[in-house]
Design brief:
By secondary structure, the protein is α+β, with helices and mostly antiparallel strands. It has eight helices and nine strands. It is elongated and about 65 Å long.
């Protein structure tokens, strides 16, 4: 979805180069809000077809090629980029409803970083609930983007830390640990302790790390340093999550 926003921003000239995360998507959203004077809730969006998916994980997908063709036609006619951005949002909302109807389930959960876009969020919710009769769920306390993903990682990591005390496991999520020793090889391989569980970790990305430091580890690499107090707070949070009923319900 993010790359689709990138394409629209580039084609319309709304944003050709980003200097911070989310800048391109924000430019398209703000343009759509400016271009929705006539009432975007009833605006006709660009067409997207629902087609069979080649992926074994999904049955249907949205084919955005008709949307790009219609958008290019508008550009040739000199249509204002703000209006194009608004029609793009309306088309996404319509395609979302079509996909939900193909799935044939009564409830829809809206999640993912693009639902930080308040315009797209309101459009999709309105069309799912009012026009198509779905029960719709969205985020209230946890953000739909990587912030929510990080919380989920923390829950899984806390469970893995508990499981590791009973047997070996693979540590693949971002968790804090303390450097116990360092081998000065190419990868600066170190032994790192995660609340009593030790694992070999590369310090190549954190060359300033030394024995006794606390580091954040992700997929076998230390990616940053942090102070001892912050590391202990994070580990305690993982332990508390692992002890909670809500975490145990997700135990593999």
């Amino acid at each position: 979805m993010g790359r689709l926003f990138d394409a629209v921003a580039s084609l319309t000239g709304l944003c050709s180069q980003a200097s911070f995360e989310g800048q391109v998507a924000m430019a398209v959203q703000f343009a759509a809000e400016r271009g929705a004077d006539e009432g975007i809730m009833s605006m006709e969006g660009y067409p997207m077809d629902v087609v069979l998916s080649d992926s074994p994980d999904t049955k249907r997908m949205a084919d955005w090629r008709p949307m790009i063709n219609a958008l290019l036609d508008d550009l040739r006619r000199g249509t204002n980029p703000d209006k194009i951005a608004a029609r793009f949002h309306a088309g996404l909302a319509t395609a979302t409803v079509s996909l939900a109807q193909e799935a044939g389930l009564p409830r829809v959960v809206m999640t993912g970083g693009y639902f930080q876009n308040r315009l797209l969020l309101s459009l999709v919710r309105q069309r799912l609930e009012n026009n198509a009769g779905f029960t719709v769920y969205g985020h209230a306390l946890v953000p739909p983007n990587d912030g929510g993903l990080s919380l989920g990682q923390a829950v899984v990591a806390s469970n893995q830390l508990m499981v590791s005390r009973e047997g070996a496991h693979k540590m693949c999520l971002a968790v804090p640990g303390q450097v116990l020793n360092i081998e000065e090889d190419t990868l600066r391989t170190a032994t790192v302790s995660f609340g009593g569980v030790t694992k070999s970790v590369s310090l190549a990305l954190v060359p300033e790390a030394k024995v006794g430091d606390y580091v954040i580890v992700h997929v076998g690499f230390a990616i940053s340093r942090l102070d001892e107090e912050a590391a202990r707070r994070t580990l305690q949070t993982y332990t508390d999550l692992a002890a909670s009923d809500s975490t145990r319900r997700f135990k593999p």
